[in-house]
Amino acid sequence: MKRSEFAALRASRFWETTPLAEMSASQWEAVCDGCGLCCLVKLECEETGAVDYTRVICPWSDPQTARCTDYPNRHVNVPECVPLTLARIAQFDWLPPTCAYRLLYEGKPLPPWHPLISGRPESVHEAGIGVRNYAPIPLTTEIDLEDFIIQLRGATAD
Q: Does residue 99 contact residue 20 with C-beta atoms inside 8 Å?
């Protein structure tokens, strides 16, 4: 998204008045705070459904930018990559509690560090929320994921 388009969307404060179901594609993409936490490998307990995050990151994710290196083809490259779409948003309880999609779905405001509020993409990382703050390591077959379980910072958006 171009900087000018983001600035116009930010100025409109669309997220405060436009329900997720009515957002344009540009608005939907702008809601993403760029934290990259959705690209960390997660473990789900079969008995309880509890989700643990690891600091192991998808091999297609750039830990410095917290962005997918092949975003248009991410679901082809990684079949397990779950598309964040409105039709599936109610299923995304595995997203971090700081995720803007989850917050808006739950009727909560965006936090002050969200780029739509701060006007700065780096604010998410400066607040300690982004994937860069967890020293991510790339996924390989030799990794025991349970050795890399982490507690996410900012367990609430407050």
A: no
Instruction: Give the bridge partners for 54, in sequence order.
Output: 149
Q: How far apart are CA 113 and CA 123, in angstroms?
A: 5
Beta bridge partners of 61: 68
The helix (H) or strand (E) run that includes residue 62 is strand 61-62
Q: At residue 136, what is the residue type? A: P
Angle at 88 between CA 107 and CA 55, to 5 degrees: 85
Closest by alpha carbon to 130, among 91, 156, 99?
99
Q: Any idea what DSSP says for residue 44?
A: E
For the full predicted model, state whether its pTM sits above 0.90: no
pLDDT digits (tens), the chain, 158 positions: 788 899 999 999 999 999 999 999 999 999 999 999 999 999 988 888 888 999 999 999 998 888 899 988 988 998 888 888 888 877 878 889 999 999 999 999 999 999 999 999 999 999 999 898 888 888 887 889 999 999 987 654 44
Domain-wise residue ranges, the chain: 3-150
Question: Can you tell me the distance from the alpha carbon of 100 to that of 63, in angstroms, rounded to the nearest whole number?
Answer: 20
CB atoms within 10 A of CB 41: 18
